[in-house]
Amino acid sequence: MDNKLSKITASMNDKTNIGYALIRVFLGIALSVRGWLILSNPDLIIRMGVGREYYMWISLIGMIHLLGGILLCLGFFTRLGALIQIPILFSASFFVLEHTKLMMGGQSVELAILVLVLLCIYFVFGSGTLSIRSYFAKNKHHVFNKT
């Protein structure tokens, strides 16, 4: 039994790029869904305590989450997708959610900080090997030089 487990573990150690890509895809989908929810019902956000004067900013945040999430999910311009969302998550973590305590229900500060850290990781390290960018880099002459 122990031998089987060590073989499986050794096999998975060689495939860490799959885990990195799955986290990137999940983060991208989650942020895209968040953006879609904000754009489809901004009045809900306003009813949560944000004034109507911030309606434009809420719409902008929704569009940034939607666009950045799609870029992250695809692994195409991943650093740009992460970079445009970092200021939003930073302000959500340290200014908007400052009244929230740790381990509370609903929108929690620890979840916002976790997403912020993941965005910083993808900004620094990029999309990884399982991405559209990596595919185009490997097949550059095949994709663009079909004559």
TrEMBL record:
<keyword id="KW-0472">Membrane</keyword>
<keyword id="KW-0812">Transmembrane</keyword>
<feature type="transmembrane region" description="Helical">
    <location>
        <begin position="54"/>
        <end position="73"/>
    </location>
</feature>
<dbReference type="GO" id="GO:0005886">
    <property type="term" value="C:plasma membrane"/>
</dbReference>
<feature type="transmembrane region" description="Helical">
    <location>
        <begin position="80"/>
        <end position="97"/>
    </location>
</feature>
<feature type="transmembrane region" description="Helical">
    <location>
        <begin position="109"/>
        <end position="132"/>
    </location>
</feature>
<keyword id="KW-1133">Transmembrane helix</keyword>
<feature type="transmembrane region" description="Helical">
    <location>
        <begin position="21"/>
        <end position="39"/>
    </location>
</feature>
<dbReference type="Pfam" id="PF07681">
    <property type="entry name" value="DoxX"/>
</dbReference>
<protein>
    <recommendedName>
        <fullName>DoxX family protein</fullName>
    </recommendedName>
</protein>
<dbReference type="InterPro" id="IPR051907">
    <property type="entry name" value="DoxX-like_oxidoreductase"/>
</dbReference>
<keyword id="KW-1003">Cell membrane</keyword>
<dbReference type="InterPro" id="IPR032808">
    <property type="entry name" value="DoxX"/>
</dbReference>
